[in-house]
């Protein structure tokens, strides 16, 4: 990624190849219909609006992109920031900016509430800055009630769009600049996957790479299939090409992203169809790439082929995130998870046997409608047997429009909270014991940052996703180094470089 100089100033951050295509757009001609050419046209057009604003301000306008939710959303926000930089905004962390965009999550209600809080705050900032524009996008905007609420109660918002038309962001920015009303564009779904748009990565040395979009699993508690749409797989050639470009740009570690990576390939034409295990193998072949992660596999179809590919490829990170959700077969059935507690346990223990150095982490929901104390006992029993390296525990949150929203609760809020607490206690105990098993070993880590508390330390990530703090300076950031683990501190280690 280079900065492109216009009139001697470093302004637009896009790669040179893309810049040539953007510059080639003819603003006096017809708007191209094909993508991504259409967006290149609008990037060039948006630059005029942003340049005008820059003249008025006497400096580059600032843009702040705030992401809620999962890795998928974090990656989408890098695409948003890519366009904002390509049209001439300068990035800032502060919401005191000329353009602030919130990329929302709606997986649980508390994610929604945080967005409303931030929109209120942004509204107060806008009163002080007449040039400020506010955008809201992402999963929550795919729900009509949320959009209605913003239209009614958050009138300071200038632009709303959803998950399916993110690729049109440059075009929507132009519409926003040309309108004095709230611009709203929400699509119900799409089959389109638009490649080759600008991306501004948060880290120069690691990156997410989308492999599928959407989800077809319809777990009964989950809003994702409704807000992210039907599952679509990217062409494997496009994925490998993106990884190669990232590596050429300095990336050493990629994370392959999909709601259910195991089902990668379904829907691709026969001549392109490959399994996730085959894709992983292809990605590992990219020279210069040092580590590959993936998120998230569904336990119902994690294949032996995948385990074999991981085993044979030292580049694949030793970390499997294997969402359990519940350890009760009856609750799993009502969640539509398509596996029993025995099937899950067999798989998890097989991974422990075949990939002994891999960390296994999980997601668990407590308080699913109909769940009893005995069901939670079953969940705790699985935690004790698998001994997760880490587990994310959530209290069930009712999502309107999902089947489970109509299921009846049998436990009180207090009982659910107490089940949550007893699960958390076991999770913490087992996770602590589990991470300590690497004490006194040597590990290769990718150094990600300076330590937040102590600037003489850096923080690196092990293959199994655990963090290690050790002495070192800024020059190590983005490098793979070998570290000896001296002391386990629960969820992280202290170590020294060897
Ligand atoms: N309530 C609580 N947790 C949920 N998750 C998904 N939907 C809900 C919900 N309605 C959790 C699941 C999933 C993780 C990303 O979020 O555990 O794996
Ligand atoms: Fe990610 Fe799901 Fe939240 Fe959307 S709703 S941001 S897909 S976790």
UniProtKB/TrEMBL annotation:
Gene3D superfamilies: Methylthiotransferase, N-terminal domain (3.40.50.12160), tm_1862 like domain (3.80.30.20). The keyword Nucleus does not apply. Its EC number is 2.8.4.3. Binds 2 [4Fe-4S] clusters. One cluster is coordinated with 3 cysteines and an exchangeable S-adenosyl-L-methionine. It comes from the Bacteria. Residues 435-498 form the TRAM domain. Its cofactor is [4Fe-4S] cluster. Residues 61-178 form the MTTase N-terminal domain. Pfam families: Radical_SAM (PF04055), TRAM (PF01938), UPF0004 (PF00919). It catalyses: N(6)-dimethylallyladenosine(37) in tRNA + (sulfur carrier)-SH + AH2 + 2 S-adenosyl-L-methionine = 2-methylsulfanyl-N(6)-dimethylallyladenosine(37) in tRNA + (sulfur carrier)-H + 5'-deoxyadenosine + L-methionine + A + S-adenosyl-L-homocysteine + 2 H(+). Catalyzes the methylthiolation of N6-(dimethylallyl)adenosine (i(6)A), leading to the formation of 2-methylthio-N6-(dimethylallyl)adenosine (ms(2)i(6)A) at position 37 in tRNAs that read codons beginning with uridine. Belongs to the methylthiotransferase family. MiaB subfamily. This is tRNA-2-methylthio-N(6)-dimethylallyladenosine synthase. The lineage of its organism: Bacteria, Bacillati, Bacillota, Clostridia, Lachnospirales. The gene is miaB.
């Amino acid at each position: 990624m280079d900065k492109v100089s216009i009139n001697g100033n470093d302004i637009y951050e896009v790669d040179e190849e893309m810049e040539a295509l953007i510059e080639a757009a003819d603003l006096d001609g017809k708007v191209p219909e094909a993508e991504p050419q259409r967006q290149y046209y609008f990037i060039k057009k948006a630059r005029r609006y942003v340049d005008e604003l820059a003249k008025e301000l006497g400096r580059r306008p600032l843009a702040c992109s705030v992401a809620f939710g999962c890795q998928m959303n974090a990656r989408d926000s890098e695409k948003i920031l890519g366009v904002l930089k390509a049209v001439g905004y300068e990035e800032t962390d502060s919401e005191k900016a000329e353009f602030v965009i919130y990329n929302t999550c709606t997986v649980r209600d508390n994610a929604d509430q945080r967005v409303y809080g931030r929109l209120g705050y942004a509204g107060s900032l806008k009163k002080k800055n007449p040039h400020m524009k506010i955008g809201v996008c992402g999963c929550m905007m795919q729900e009509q009630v949320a959009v209605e609420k913003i239209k009614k109660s958050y009138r300071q918002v200038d632009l709303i769009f959803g998950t399916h038309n993110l690729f049109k962001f440059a075009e929507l920015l132009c519409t926003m600049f040309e309108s004095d009303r709230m611009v709203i564009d929400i699509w119900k779904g799409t089959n389109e996957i638009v490649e080759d748009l600008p991306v501004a990565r948060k880290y120069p040395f690691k990156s997410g790479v989308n492999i599928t979009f959407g989800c077809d699993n319809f777990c009964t508690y989950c809003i994702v299939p409704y807000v992210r749409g039907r599952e679509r797989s990217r062409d494997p050639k496009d994925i490998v090409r993106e990884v190669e470009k990232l590596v050429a740009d300095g990336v050493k570690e990629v994370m392959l992203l999909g709601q259910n990576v195991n089902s990668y390939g379904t829907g691709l034409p026969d001549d392109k169809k490959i399994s996730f295990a085959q894709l992983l193998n292809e990605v590992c072949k990219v020279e210069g790439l040092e580590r590959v992660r993936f998120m998230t596999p569904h336990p119902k179809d994690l294949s032996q082929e995948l385990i074999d590919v991981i085993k044979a490829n030292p580049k694949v990170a030793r970390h499997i995130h294997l969402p359990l959700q519940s350890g009760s077969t009856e609750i799993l059935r009502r969640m539509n998870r398509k596996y029993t507690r025995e099937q899950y346990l067999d798989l998890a223990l097989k991974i422990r046997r075949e990939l002994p150095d891999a960390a296994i982490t999980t997601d668990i929901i407590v308080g699913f409608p109909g769940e009893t104390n005995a069901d939670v006992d079953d969940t705790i029993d699985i935690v004790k047997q698998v001994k997760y390296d880490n587990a994310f525990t959530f209290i069930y949150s009712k999502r309107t429009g999902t089947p489970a929203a109509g299921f009846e609760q049998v436990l009180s809020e207090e009982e659910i909270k107490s089940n949550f607490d007893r699960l958390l206690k076991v999770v913490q105990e087992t996770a602590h014991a589990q991470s300590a098993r690497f004490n006194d070993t040597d590990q290769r880590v990718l150094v990600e940052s300076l330590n937040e508390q102590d600037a003489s330390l850096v923080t690196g990530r092990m293959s199994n996703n655990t963090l290690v703090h050790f002495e070192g300076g800024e020059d190590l950031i983005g490098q793979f180094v070998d570290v000896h683990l001296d002391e386990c501190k629960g969820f992280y280690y202290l170590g020294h470089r060897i």
